[in-house]
Automatic annotation (TrEMBL):
This is Uncharacterized protein. Residues 46-100 are annotated as: Disordered. Residues 1-19 form the signal peptide. The keyword Signal applies. Keywords: Signal. Residues 46-96 have a biased composition (Basic and acidic residues).
Length: 170
């Protein structure tokens, strides 16, 4: 009885193995790497759900679905490349058109840190720190933060052409 069970298990295993092997061979014959990957993914999903026998009948259908999915993915990738090529070099200009280049700010607090660099707290809760080593005159009460080139920012005082490079901390 025990030998009969082992024999039946061996036959069932070899039949499943043969079905899986034929599916793997069919996927291996697909030349396009993306379609082949989709075919292997579909085989793995079918194996996990225990539908190995139905898979052998649906193998041509799986290959067709894999080709469709691969074609869709190629189209989407091509569209993304074309969009990126159209915007190339204008990324900063598109952003600059929608955002302010200069804002007026009111100081809540300022403190001089190590090496003579300033830490500025604004009334709206933003905190900025000085990144360059220039001198800045604090005479007056009308200040601004201005966008510079290459995503830099400058803190300045209205009526003065002196300004310091700053970076937002908080």
């Amino acid at each position: 009885m025990h030998k009969l069970f082992i024999g039946m298990a061996t036959i069932a295993f070899s039949a499943t193995s043969f079905a899986q092997q034929s599916g793997l061979e069919a996927c291996a014959e697909i030349e396009d790497s993306l379609e082949r990957l989709v075919c292997y993914d579909n085989l793995a999903k079918k194996e996990q759900s225990g539908e190995q026998q139905r898979q052998d009948r649906e193998l041509p259908e799986q290959a067709r679905k894999g080709k469709q999915k691969a074609a869709e993915m190629r189209e989407k990738a091509q569209e993304r490349r074309e969009q990126a090529n159209e915007r190339f070099g204008f990324e900063h200009k598109e952003r600059a058109d929608t955002e302010d280049e200069r804002i007026s700010v009111t100081l809540a607090d300022r403190e001089e840190g190590p090496y003579g660099k300033w830490r500025i707290t604004l009334t709206n809760g933003q905190v900025w720190k000085q990144t360059d080593s220039g001198y800045f005159s604090w005479d007056g009460d009308s200040y601004y933060i201005e966008r510079g080139a290459l995503n830099s920012f400058f803190f300045g005082r209205e009526g003065s052409n002196r300004r310091m490079r700053v970076q937002r901390v908080k």
